[in-house]
């Protein structure tokens, strides 16, 4: 279990407000919950607490070994803090926790946190066999001394927003819709490492990123993105894929960013890429010359797409 809190205990006159969930990606639906949590709790001089889990329950219960996360624990906490959350309690999720009854879990949590209000979605469930529904939690609240407040799911264009939907969109090339549901551009962060030097050889130096292996990558293809490095932002063209023009057999997937109007050595530094627009899928060209013709067209399109983005303010992560 880990706890994060950057705030002074200024909201301590009443029992804290609490919400529970995985909150992977902290999309618009999550943000609506968190804003309600912080707004209502702070107006009552109470603290706001988010209880979340790592690893994600799906990773544990379904044995999912593929890249899955929309946000790392650090990214998620950063966004939650930016939304005004006072304390983030991250519980280690394993089969022991999964087998715990809803009653036992909530009783332990209430003993530790003495929360006055539990804020949940109308279809929220927790505990072994998902037995802890709104009715169970409400009845338990009468015994322990907290109340339950349920909220309806957040919708955008008649779609209920979910992390699962965003994952599917990203995997299938639906970056624009995924960004709309997240409320910000999808992003990845990693350390810049040495590649095979092929980009520099053809006059197109790229920064190769070593990204957390559990992070879900957008679909293979070419993207217009904003690169953030040492507090500065640069327009960039990013290729996610296997470089089929140069390698006959599928090669290890790479993430390569060509920063426009940039010429510095930046190995071993951390960089974040915010994906703004999917330009095209990855294509195998007949030659490096044909590839360069296409890349120059990609760069021109990226400049057009990104011209206004450098002045925009986004949520962290």
Class derived from helix and strand content: alpha/beta
**Would you report the number of β strands?**
14
For the largest beta-sheet, the strand count, sense and barrel status come to:
6 strands, mixed
CATH-scheme architecture of the largest domain? 3-Layer(aba) Sandwich
Q: Which whole number gives the mean pLDDT?
A: 90
Strand adjacency order, main sheet: 1-4-3-2-5-6
N-to-C span? 22 Å
The helicity comes to 25-40%
Uncertain runs: none
CATH H-level homologous superfamily name of the largest domain:
HUPs
Number of domains: 2
Secondary-structure blueprint:
Layout: E1 2-4, E2 14-20, H1 28-43, E3 46-54, H2 57-61, H3 73-82, E4 87-92, H4 95-98, H5 102-113, E5 117-121, H6 134-144, E6 147-151, E7 155-156, E8 159-160, H7 163-171, H8 175-182, E9 186-193, H9 198-201, E10 207-211, E11 221-229, E12 232-241, E13 254-259, E14 270-280, H10 288-306
Parallel strand pairs: 2-3, 2-5, 3-4, 5-6
Antiparallel strand pairs: 1-4, 7-8, 9-10, 9-14, 10-13, 11-12, 11-14, 12-13
Helix pairs in contact: 5-6, 7-8
Can you characterise this structure?
- This protein is α/β, with parallel strands linked by helices and 317 residues long.
- It is 31% helix and 28% strand.
- It folds into two domains: 2-160, 3-Layer(aba) Sandwich (Rossmann fold), CATH 3.40.50; 186-311, Elongation Factor Tu (Ef-tu), domain 3 (Beta Barrel).
- The protein has helices at residues 28-43, 57-61, 73-82, 95-98, 102-113, 134-144, 163-171, 175-182, 198-201, 288-306; strands at residues 2-4, 14-20, 46-54, 87-92, 117-121, 147-151, 155-156, 159-160, 186-193, 207-211, 221-229, 232-241, 254-259, 270-280.
- The protein starts with a strand and ends in an 11-residue tail after the last helix.
